[in-house]
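[User]
Um, C-alpha cells okay?
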Amino acid sequence: VQLVESGGGLVQPGGSLRLSCAASGFTFRNYGMSWYRQAPGKERELVAFISSAGGSTNYASSVKGRFTISRDNAKNTVYLQMNSLKPEDTAVYYCVAVRLNAWGQGTQVTVSS
C-alpha cells in the first residue's frame, strides 16, 4: 500500500491550494478515504472523509464550506481543494485509507503573509 501526497506549499491568507493523493497497492475504489492534518503542538485532526464511490462526504466544522474532498477512482487519486485558507489551516496534511489504516508521508501547508 502506498499513498503519496502532493500540492502543499506556502500560500497567503485567503488563497487556495489543491492537494492530491495518489494511491497504489490496493483496490482504491473499494475504500473510503480521509484527509487528516496535524499542526505543531496539536493533536491530529480529521479534516474530511469521502466514501468509496464518492457519494458521501463529511467535513470538520472548522473547514466546512471552505474545503472540498473529491476522488477519481479511474486515476486512484483523492483530492482536497482548500479555499479561503486561514493561518490556522497551517499543518502537515495526510491522506489516509481508512479501513487499511494506511497513511501517506504528508505534505506541508503553510498559510502566512
